[in-house]
Design goal:
The complex is a heterodimer of chains A (about 110) and B (about 110). Chain A is elongated and about 50 Å long. Chain A has about 110 residues and is mainly beta. The N and C termini of chain A lie far apart (about 40 Å). With about 110 residues, chain B is mainly beta. Chain B has no helices and 11 strands. In chain B, strands 2, 4, 5, 6, 9, 10 and 11 form a 7-stranded mixed β-sheet that branches. Chain B is globular, with a radius of gyration of 13 Å. Classes of the chains: A mainly beta (about 110), B mainly beta (about 110). Chains A and B meet through strand 4, strand 5, strand 9 and strand 10 of A and strand 10 of B.
Chain lengths: ~110, ~110
Amino acid sequence: EDQVTQSPEALRLQEGESSSLNCSYTVSGLRGLFWYRQDPGKGPEFLFTLYSAGEEKEKERLKATLTKKESFLHITAPKPEDSATYLCAVRLSPQGGSEKLVFGKGTKLTVNP
Amino acid sequence: NAGVTQTPKFQVLKTGQSMTLQCAQDMNHEYMSWYRQDPGMGLRLIHYSVGAGITDQGEVPNGYNVSRSTTEDFPLRLLSAAPSQTSVYFCASNRQGSSEKLFFGSGTQLSVL
């Protein structure tokens, strides 16, 4: 069964304390991995798309990387405004089936001042 | 641009009642979709549409109906609400050929008693 697993479920950091969030997947027919940010009471907001192993994308303090089996979202010197839930999703094109997007459960990040 | 607008923000129903969640987008996106988000689970696709007059089922379609009479609007109908449909519902839209960059509404929190 296709699965997307995010870890940890929750992460508390002090302002300036860098860390990484993980998204691992066991899927066939991967056609892209995506990161979204979700603030409380809001819908997810698109951050990055990664298509192939070795690819990296950066935006401000965030950098997303992709290997054959997992993706990391690195947060460098985070600020309290980076506090949010970060969602990972993979786009699949399974044999004999239609393309679909599978979301992980998310990692809730809290950055304390 | 308002983006994706969902109404209502909150709703409480009794078991067996029906209602329609409204979704409208002003970005002229071809694709629209409905997701539900439950605690401890990833976003799950309910129904989607690739254009006016065309809809299809997602991962969890039972108990829901959709229609797409215009490009802008994509309402979700609960036919006979059940407690299992208590969830947060998100509408999303995206441009054809950019299925990973979804634009989400701010969600509807639905409780079925």
